[in-house]
Amino acid sequence: MNLVMRSGAALVAAGVSSIASAAIVNDWNLIVLGNANNSSQDIEGRAWVGGNFISSGSPTVAKNLAPASSFLGKTTLAVGGNVSVSNLNQQAGNLRYGGTFSGNFNANGGGNRAQDGSIAAQIPSYTSDLVGLSNFYKGLSANSTATFPSGQPGAVTYNANPVNGLAVFNVSAANVFNNNLIQQLNLNINSATAIVINVSGTTVNFTSGNMTGNWLSAFARSKVIWNFHEATNIFLDRNFNGAILAPNAHLRNTTAIDGSVFVKSLQQDGEIHLPNFAGYIPTPGTAALLALAGLTAARRRR
Question: Which of 144, 207, 223, 280 sits at a 20 to 30 Å CA gap from 189?
Fold first, then answer.
C-alpha cells in the first residue's frame, strides 16, 4: 500500500493523461523529441523523430522488422521535420515526414515515402508522455541495491529484490558511469520480471567498464529501463544494454545500444538494436487508480 500511495503522488504531479498514454514506449524502438543525426548507422526497429533526421551517409531503418510484408502500410520512420540523407535504406514499412526530403530513398521492404504534417503536431504529447513516465519512475520507492568497488578497481553489482516482480534501484551517474574504478557491471535478476533503474545526475559518461553476464540477456534488453531523470548530456562509449529514458538529454553513442532509446536529441554513431521495451509501465487503469490513491493520501494529510 505504501508503494501505491507514493506512486500515486508522483502520478498526480506528472499528470494522469501523460502516464495513461505512455505506451508509446512499447511501439517505437527509437523516439527522439528533437533532431537526430545519424552517421550511417542501423536502427533495427521503428523510429519516431520530432525534429529533423540528418545523415551525410546511408542509414538503415527498420532493419530487423520481419517479415517486411507485415509492415506494408505501416509507418516505420516518422519525422516531424526534414529528412536529409545521402541514401536512406528502409527495410520495412513507410517513411512519413513533415518537411522536405533530400537524398535517395531505397524502399527495400516495398514501402513508400510521403509528406505528413501530423507528426510535428505530436511533439507536445510525446514530450509530455516521456517526461511523465520519467517522473513516475522517479517517484517509485527503491527496493533493490547496487554494490560498488571501493578503493580498488572492481565490479558494480545490481542485486534485484523485487516486490510483486518489480525491482527498483536508485543510483547516481557519478557512482555507476563517471567512475574509473568500475571494470564491469553485473546483474542478479533473482525473481524480477521487470527492473527500473533511476539514475541521478545531469552528465553521464560511460567510458570505462563493460556490461557482462545477465546484462547481455534478452531479459535485460527488453525488461530493464534506465531512467536518466536529471540528465542533459549522455555519452556512451561502451556497449549498452536495456532501454534508455532521458527526455531532457542529448545522447551520443559510439557503440551499439541493445534496447530502445527515448531522448530529447541524438547523435547516433552506433547502432540501435531491438527489442522494443516490454518492461513495466502503468496501464491507463493503473494510472487512474494510483492517481486516486495519491489524491486520497493528500486529503488525509490535510
Answer: 207
d(CA 31, CA 262): 5
pTM: predicted TM-score of the whole model, two decimal places: 0.89
- Phi/psi for 288 (5° steps) reads -65, -40
Read off φ and ψ for residue 285, nearest 5 degrees.
Answer: -65, -40
Mean pLDDT: which of 118-127, 149-158, 178-187 is highest? Answer: 118-127
User: What amino acid occupies position 7?
Assistant: S
Tell me the pLDDT tens digit for each residue of 17-64: 445 456 899 999 999 999 999 999 999 999 999 999 999 999 999 999
User: What is the Cα–Cα distance from 144 to 163, expressed in whole angstroms?
Assistant: 9
Q: Which amino acid is at 127?
A: T
Mean pLDDT, residues 232-254: 98
- Over range 188-195, report the average pLDDT: 98
Grid cell digits, residue 270: 552506433
Q: Are 31 and 262 in contact (CB under 8 A)?
A: yes
